[in-house]
Amino acid sequence: MIVELGLLCTIVGLLLACLLAVAGLAGAGLQQPRLMNACGSLVVGQFVFCALAFGVLVHAFATDDFSVAYVARNSNTLLPWYFKVSAVWGAHEGSFLLWILVTTVWTLAVALTGAHLSLSYRARVLGVMGLLNVGFLSFLIFTSNPFERLLPLTPTQGSDLNPLLQDIGLIIHPPMLYIGYVGFSVAFAFAVAALLSGRLDTAWARWSRPWTNTAWAFLTVGIALGSWWAYYELGWGGWWFWDPVENASFMPWLMGTALVHSLAVTEKRGTFKSWTVLLALSTFTLSLLGAFIVRSGVLTSVHAFAVDPERGLFILAFLALVVGGSLILYALRASVITSAATYAWLSREAFVLLNNVLLVCAVGLVLVGTLFPLAYEAVTGGDKISVGVPYFNFGFVPLMGLLAVALGFAPMLRWKRTSFSLLANRVLWIGAISVGLGVLLPLMWLGAVDVRVVLTVALGLWIILSHLVDLARRLRNTRGVPPGGYLGMLVAHMGFAVTLIGVGMASQLTVERDLPMQPGEKLVVSGYQFQFVGVTEERGPNYIAQRGRVLVQPAPTGEVVQGAGASDDAFTLLPEKRRYMAGGNIMTEASIDAGLLRDVFVSLGEPLDGGAWALRIQVKPFVRWLWLGALLMAAGGVLAVTDARYRRRRVVAVAEDTAPGETLVVGRSGQA
Amino acid sequence: MHPKRKSRLFLVLFLLAGVGITVGLVLLALNENLNLFYPPDKVVNGEAPVDRLIRAGGMVKDGSVVRGQNLEVEFVVTDHAGSEFRVLYAGILPDLFREGQGILVQGKLDASRTLVAQEVLAKHDENYMPPELAEMETQAPKPAAPSLPGLDEAAPLNSGGGA
After folding, report:
1. CA R_g for chain B
2. Residue B133's pLDDT is what?
3. Quick one: which H or E segment has residue A71?
4. Which residues of B97-117 are buried (b: 16+ CB within 10 A; e: fewer)?
5. Long-range contact list for B12-16, CB < 8 A, 24+ apart?
6. Under 8 Å between Cβ of A91 and B125
7. Final residue of a domain: which of A399, A416, A446?
8. pLDDT at B99
9. Fewer CB within 10 A of the terminal residue: chain A, N end or C end?
10. Which residue of A73, A386, A388 is in closest CB contact with B148?
11. Whether residue B130 sits in one domain with residue B59
12. Are residues A84 and A18 in the same domain?
């Protein structure tokens, strides 16, 4: 009975979303304050019913209600309770319900904090978000109903959650990713609302900046979590595979990064207006493309469409509507956009432009690599092809290298124009130190010079030093804590440098050995001695594991110690091979000793003759840095949102927000 | 020139240069890194090129797996329709590598049409199938268990050799 209520809630949610779309868009179009004022309560209602529906599904999982087909497919009585809850978003239908819940939460957040927006602008934003949710909810109800029953043949046991997903990383990863994806719908709605109202001034950029930053920060964390999960859970120590699923989340991130920067220019300088709008539209389009296409299974094969043509067609139609609709609107309105400001070559504007060009090129590169196999299969009528990892690295690495070079200039540049003579001095000495240390540090640490390592270290230092020097100058010249926007920029840029160092070092200096080991056998890898003790059998809550025991200690003296970071302590690693009882799936559970300078990674391969096992042993320098940097980037994005500019509005609303060309109803500039 | 037009001209040139470089890089890289997929019959009949990185796949033939020294392994991949080829690999095999199981190998064919594999990929779990093999398994004699959809987002293929 409760389950039917869940379906009913989604239907009520759909009706409310329809009303919201009408009230918001028609209300603003016809200038009906009553309709526009109704938006707020519709948003709350939409949220309440979607949250109830989500709660019902969680309840069905928690109580092992296997009469629900989705629960039967993705859960099992043996699962610990937290995996039962996270199994809600373990597959298509439930994760889409989560997506919808996140949409209503973002809409609610906009409605609650949007009192400073003009009435009709706010109504349009909420209306557009309502319209999107109409699409999402109809997709759920008509093609992917998570509340479908298995009656009367109710199974007594579920077929279990994929063991790969039975992991803490996968409890948090999808929600983070979705908050990021859907968050870009706010930027999309702000841009569409601005296009609809025909007022593309700097105000919409200021309003959408905090939202875009927040969404971007969540997506950053989501992607980092996914990569971290792949690293330890897939069992083989890789952290990025250029897999279609990863690319699907990476493209909106790259585009969103461009958007975050371009919005800054639009707000501060009033230029790049139409470009920024286009970025806002395409970032959300890529989010949709990513999430939908991954979930529909199309990326694995064109034939996945045939498996469920209803879903595929719905997705195509929805994408066509969103992309086509917003682009037509853009084409109609873009002509009214004018930019007055000019800027010189050596200016912040020009470098943000460079950043945008590089990032959009990177998106194009990834997009081609991701969709090419699909296009090939469709054109040739079924021939299959795969695009190799070298393709992505070949294009992506130089683009990011150029981006890193440009990034070091960021804190030195001023708006409009920067005098080269002032800049030259700083560029020269910071550049010289970076290159010098870039050669010296690897030489001291490894005793050898490798061009790629030198480049990695030098570029990372170039970014970090130039930002730190700027911070020092700023602190010397002005008292007090710098504004959040500045600190956010600083932290996020240094995060990029940290990730860059992590990626560069881990890909070039990882030492990896796959080999058979007899119990008792010893091996020295990269300054550590590994001793394979043996394998014992252990029982987990819903699996049986073969647990290996590997003693690790610094290599005895006399061995050439390559790679610093070998501490004096010995430690034990316990890699496992698990067999899950419900599905019979086998999983490799790696064991990792994590450290800031290096990870020691051991995983069990397969049993061989005479008690020997195949082992994979890896020492990965700086691998933590790539996730640490991502966290810093996200922290930077959040810091920028805390900037006093976004909170000061109450006091200076009249003075600041009604600058020429802006539309603000002063009477409504209350909370922020 | 009018400063506004000048900056616009720069912008356009800039974009063109960026797009040009990217397109060039993309075409160059794509050309070198496309790995075509060949089922066993095409490996056998000579359609698959020798000494070029390709993907091939099929079922691991029962009783064909032979282990050697240092994780070297040799097995036969078949389509259960008369075509089969030998694979040589050195390294750790994926968790779901079993005889009778559908697998995908990436590597180069040598002169004797033996595939020297750089990577061996298997199914992720009981339900997930590498896309290239999805059609083939339905043709195999043993009917596949009724597969339940879902978990399609379970990330990359479980790769024994990939890092």
Report:
1. 22
2. 63
3. helix A69-74
4. bbeeebbbbbbebeeeebbeb
5. B14/A353, B14/A354, B14/A357, B15/A357
6. no
7. A399
8. 85
9. N
10. A73
11. yes
12. yes
Does B12 reach chain A within 8 Å, measured CB to CB? no
Do residues B28 and B53 both lie within one domain?
Answer: no
Same domain, A24 and A156: yes
Distance between A610 CA and the closest CA of chain B, angstroms: 13
Whose CA is closest to A154, among A55, A58, A62, A73?
Answer: A73
Question: How far is the C-alpha of A470 from the C-alpha of A475, rounded, in Å?
Answer: 9
Residues A393 and A405 in one domain: no
Same-domain check for residues B14 and B88: no
B10/B66 same-domain check: no
- A167 lies in some domain: no
Residue B122 and residue B64 in one domain? yes
State chain B's mean pLDDT as an integer: 75
Do B54 and B99 fall into the same domain? yes
Domain span at residue A558 reads 511-623
3-class secondary structure, A662: coil
- Decide if A173 is inside a domain: no
Instruction: Kindly state whether residues A136 and A37 are assigned to the same domain.
Output: yes
DSSP A250-266: HHHHHHHHHHHHHHHHH
Q: How many helices (H) and strands (E) does chain A have?
A: 19, 11
- Whether residues A369 and B30 touch (CB distance < 8 A) is answered with yes
Say whether A356 sits in a helix, a strand or coil: helix
Strand partners of residue A531: A522, A551
- pLDDT of the residue at A297: 64
Assess if residue A193 is contained within a domain.
no
Instruction: Tell me the one-letter amino acid at A426.
Output: R
Residue with tokens 């493209």: A251
How many structural domains is chain A composed of? 5
Show the low-confidence residues of chain A (pLDDT under 70).
235, 293, 295-309, 337-340, 557-568, 647-672
C-beta atoms of B155 and A243 within 8 A: yes
The answer to whether the Cβ–Cβ distance between A395 and B25 falls below 8 Å is: yes
For residues B12 and B19, give the distance between their C-alpha atoms in angstroms, rounded to a whole number: 10
What is residue B55's three-state secondary structure? strand
> Considering A465, A481, A510, which residue would you say is the last residue of a domain?
A510
Structure ipTM: 0.75
The number of folded domains in chain B is 2
Residues A42 and A131 in one domain: yes
Q: How far is A197 from chain B (nearest CA, A)?
A: 26
Residue A650 and residue A601 share a domain: no
Structural domain for B113, as ranges: 37-159
**A295 within 8 A of A139, measured Cβ to Cβ:** no
Do residue A27 and residue A133 come from a single domain? yes
Residue A458, classified by CB atoms within 10 Å of its CB into exposed (0-12), middle (13-18) or buried (19+), is buried
Query: Is the CB of residue A129 less than 8 Å from the CB of residue A111?
Result: no
Indicate yes or no: CB of A307 within 8 angstroms of CB of B149: yes
Whether B36 contacts chain A with CB within 8 A: yes
- Residue with more model confidence, A49 or B130: A49
pTM, full prediction: 0.89
Q: Indicate whether B63 and B13 sit together in one domain.
A: no
**B12 & B76 share domain:** no
- Whats the size of chain A, residue-wise? 672
d(CA A133, CA A114): 19
Q: Give the H/E segment covering residue A529.
A: strand A528-539
Tell me, yes or no, whether A230 lies in a domain. yes
Helix, strand, or coil here: A480? Answer: coil
DSSP string, A311-352: HHHHHHHHHHHHHHHHHHHHHHHGGG--------SSSHHHHH
Question: What pLDDT sits at residue B148?
Answer: 37
CB contacts under 8 A, B 52-91 vs A, are: 53, 55, 67, 70-71, 91
Instruction: Say if residue B80's pLDDT is above 90.
Output: no
Query: How many residues does this entry show for chain B?
Result: 163
Among chain B residues, CA nearest to A506: B163
